[in-house]
Design brief:
Strand content: 5-15%
Number of domains: 2
Shape: globular
Oligomer: single chain
Mean pLDDT: 93
CATH class of the largest domain: Alpha Beta
CATH architecture of the largest domain: 3-Layer(aba) Sandwich
Distance between the termini: 31 Å
Strand order of the largest sheet: 1-2-12-7-8-11
Largest sheet: 6 strands, mixed
Number of strands: 12
Number of helices: 12
Helix content: 25-40%
Length: 367
């Protein structure tokens, strides 16, 4: 039985929590659905024990007491759009250890929506097994979809038949609607700079997977008038069977689509020149989800020095790149590392969990 569907609260009823995007462009309110899911603003602070005076962090891991990370900002807009359209189910996709899929399952349950996950292959480790158990724990309908390309093909074709009437959310929540969450995050950061919480960063560095956070931050900093360069660390393949997955072209296209969506609903959003942000390569290793020595070293370093957990798929590789970048910066200035992982302890959700409760196709990853 499908869960009961509610409607997102109107943002006008809670002006204190209204997105800064709506405060900057008031005519967006009431036109673009939004649902409060997180606790914002997230902290910014210097990484004092890393031995670098100019390195700061944006603690997106603290975005919610249920499950943190950068996905919550995207889901505040995406799930609100699903609810306002009267949808009962959300279909999305990701790797076997998808953080996005887990976040979607958790917040779909909170919003009264069912969640269907199309999962594609990636190297399996304890982190991935734990995520699969948690996705099942939070009620996701888990479907094995083969490789990344096959999962994408199914998402855009066959799944439309199996899940008629559902809301389809691309991998990582990286649709123009989801990207508005990262645009809003840029306005949040700009306010924190004005309030003296941190100096203006010359560079912001985030992981580049599905591209939504990089595209939204790059667009948002332009709209907010920040003289800041946003860089993405490639943590997935650039192309799958020739199909572009994470390139300057895909990021620029997403930026332009997000800006067009904002222009469609607001006459106040100014025209800005969209230029693709630079991509830092060389940290992917053998592929998506594959450990690297630099990644594992960065994870151990951050945990020991700052007590911050990184993951091996996204933030470990991103922070490895950040360390190298700061050591050989092309120009002086402050660097802000955008920490997109979750810091909420969900161990109780998998303690004693029975992997045989997963669909049979996933049992092989535990045997």
């Amino acid at each position: 039985m499908e869960p009961a569907v509610g409607r997102p609260e109107k943002v006008e009823s809670a002006p204190g929590t209204m997105p800064l995007l709506f405060q900057r462009y008031p005519d967006l309110a009431g036109k673009i659905p939004w649902l409060s899911l997180g606790t914002f603003p997230t902290r910014v602070h210097r990484l004092e024990r890393c031995g670098l005076e100019n390195l700061w962090v944006k603690r997106e891991d603290e975005s919610s007491s249920l499950y943190g990370g950068n996905k919550i900002r995207k889901l505040e807009f995406a799930l609100a759009e699903a609810l306002s359209a009267g949808k009962k189910k959300v279909v999305t996709m990701g790797g076997l250890g998808t953080n996005h899929g887990l976040a979607t399952a958790i917040f779909c349950r909170e919003a009264g929506l069912s969640c269907r996950l199309l999962l594609f292959d990636q190297p399996v480790n304890e982190h991935v097994r734990r995520t699969m158990l948690l996705c099942n724990r939070y009620g996701a309908d888990m479907v094995y979809a083969g490789g990344m390309l096959a999962a994408g093909a199914r998402f855009f074709t066959l799944e439309k038949f199996f899940s008629r009437g559902a809301y389809f959310l691309p991998a990582g929540g990286s649709s123009p609607t989801g990207c508005m969450g990262a645009v809003n995050a840029a306005f949040e950061l700009e306010r924190q700079v004005r309030e003296g919480k941190l100096p203006r960063p010359r560079y912001i560095i985030c992981a580049l997977g599905s591209g939504g956070t990089l595209a939204g931050l790059a667009l948002g900093t332009k709209l907010a008038g920040m003289d800041t360069e946003v860089l993405g660390v490639l943590v997935t393949v650039k192309r799958a069977a020739g199909y572009p997955v994470a390139t300057t072209g895909t990021v620029k296209k997403l930026m332009k689509s997000t800006l067009a969506l904002l222009h469609r609903h607001s006459a106040l959003v100014p025209p800005v020149k969209v230029a693709a942000p630079a991509i830092i390569e060389g940290y992917l290793g053998d592929g998506y989800g594959c450990d690297t020595g630099e990644c594992l070293d960065a994870m151990a370093f951050m945990k020991e020095r700052e007590g911050i957990d990184l993951d091996p798929t996204y933030t470990g590789k991103c922070f490895a790149a950040v360390r190298d970048f700061v050591a050989r910066m092309p120009a002086p200035g402050n660097v802000l590392y955008w920490h997109s992982y979750n810091s909420v302890d969900l161990a109780s959700g998998v303690s004693g969990a029975d992997w045989t409760a997963l669909p049979k196709v996933f049992h092989r990853y535990f045997q």
